[in-house]
Every structure is written in C-alpha cells, then in structure tokens.
Amino acid sequence: MALPPAIQRPAGTATDHSEKERPAHDLDSEFYAAEGGRVSHLDGAHTDHVVHGQGGGPLPIPAPQAGTLVRFVQPIPYAEAWTLQKQFQEERIAERQGDVLLLLEHSPVYTLGRTTKPTHWGCGEEVLRRTGASLQFVDRGGSITYHGPGQVVGYPILKLSRYCSGPKQYVWKLEEVVIQTLLRWGIAGYRMEKKPGVWVQWNHTDAKIAAVGVRIDHGVTIHGFALNVDLDLSPFSHILPCGLVQCHITSMAEIRQSSLSSLVVAQQVAFEFARTFNMQWTGLPPDSIGQGHHDHQLTSPSPLHV
C-alpha cells in the first residue's frame, strides 16, 4: 500500500472552501439512487458465511476489503486533522493508497458546515471563543456542531463504490456503526427521519448522541461521524446543534450515569466499523504520518476482539 508523504502541521486558519471548488458530481441523483433497504452486517473476521439469493442458492460473502486504521490517543486540533484528511483523500483519489479510517478526539472546536445560518449561533463568535474553543468553517453538509475531548470522531476516507450504492446507504452504515457500539453498553440508539445521526431516549425525550456529516469528492468520502462518549456538554448550549431547535444533546456517560473511557469506545467503534463495512484493519507505520503528529501519540491497532 502506497503511503502519503510526511505531513506538515498546517497554519492555524481554516481554508475557505467555496462552491466553485466542488467537482462536477451529481449528489442529488446519488441520494435518489441510494434510497432503499437495510444493509447486511458482514463480519470481517469470517469469510466462510453464506447468504441466500432470491433463488434460494447460497452466495459467498466477499472477502473483507483491506483498510488502514489510524488512531490517536491525545486530542488533535481540528486544522491538523483536516490537513490529514485532505492528504489521505487526495492520495485515495489518485489510487496511490487504500481506504483509511481516522479515529481521534479533537481539541475544543465549533465546526460550521455549509447549511449553517446566523441564527444557529446567535450568541456570536466572541461568546463561542470565550468557551476556549476555536471556530472552523468546513465544507461538509449540515450546520454547526461542537467537538471536544471525550468525543470519539471518525473520519473514513473510502472509495464509496466499494461499500455502498450511494451517500444515503453510506450515512445509514455510519449510523449503524454507532448504534452497534452503543448496544455494547446497553444503550438503545435509533435513527430519526430527516435528522441524520443517532438518537437515544433521555429524560423522556429524543436526545442526540452522535452526529454525522459527510462529503464525497470524486467518489471518495471525507468528514464523518462524532460519538459523545464522556465530555463536557455545556458548549452545545451556546448553539443550535446541527441547526435543530430544541435539540437535546447527551452522551454515553450521561445515559449510564458513570464515567467511560473514550479509548475503549474507540476500539469498539473500530471493530463495529470493520464489521459493518466488511473490512480488515492494518496499521499505518507512525513514520509515514510525519513528526508533527507524533506528539498526539499515534497508535497502531491492537487485535479487535472486543
């Protein structure tokens, strides 16, 4: 597998991605074509299972796709993670490397997607910065949200056609990864129509526990999902998360009323991602990432029997 060259620490300011930069890619028709049924969960650890076609005959499950898992132990500034995503995406588009999943936590940051409106963060930039968080305008779908330590963030850089019929099925699978991870902790997650992400019941109401926001360029995914594990939820009170009025935000720790290790949950997310997308993880040598990221303790995956 070809690996990207060493990655330099980016400047502190975010790049302004205008609509002119978007490739000629008809996402609306892809979303339409992707509508449909549920997808099977394929266990990447077993290749001898069979499924049955309409004629009743067994169909072999394809062998798992090889993928690279990159995990960071310490929180990463959003600008660094964005540079890393873009470099992996460019390498994937050029077919110089395979599919990658970045699993990490962010330093406190508000990210503002393409559908963000002023009313979604009516308190203003100064108030948000007083929380100690930075602000980043990003080119993903969706509105404003918050990322911080104690939240597991996944950025899959995948050639979409290898795994899904289109963006809708892709978002469904990302949500399924989170739902299956929550079940390991006895938490019942679910979807809500026209509200991407994963929701749970908390205090007799729907509460959002995971956000999903993606973009697809030249058939390769970028951005991803964020699962609230054990983090300070107060920064969400300054915004309309995902642009939703009266959107209650919760975390796994709040639901269980006990502290949780985000590192343990990240390991479980990696396992469920491999199952749902039928992938088998390999590690990425730390020296291929660049010295700037070593401070965040890049780790190789351990066996995912969790």
Summarize the structure.
The protein is of the alpha/beta class.
Distance between the termini: 27 Å
Overall structural domain count: 1
Question: Which CATH architecture would you pick?
Answer: 2-Layer Sandwich
What share of residues is helical? 10-25%
Q: What is the H/E order?
A: HEEEHEEHEEEHEEEEEHHEE
The CATH superfamily turns out to be: Bira Bifunctional Protein, Domain 2
Number of strands: 15
Overall description:
With 306 residues, the chain is α/β, with parallel strands linked by helices. Helix content is 22%, strand content 26%. It contains six helices and 15 strands. Strands 3, 4, 8, 9, 10, 11, 12, 13, 14 and 15 form a ten-stranded mixed beta sheet that branches. Helix 4 packs across helix 6. It is globular and about 55 Å long. The two termini are 27 Å apart. The N terminus and C terminus are likely disordered.
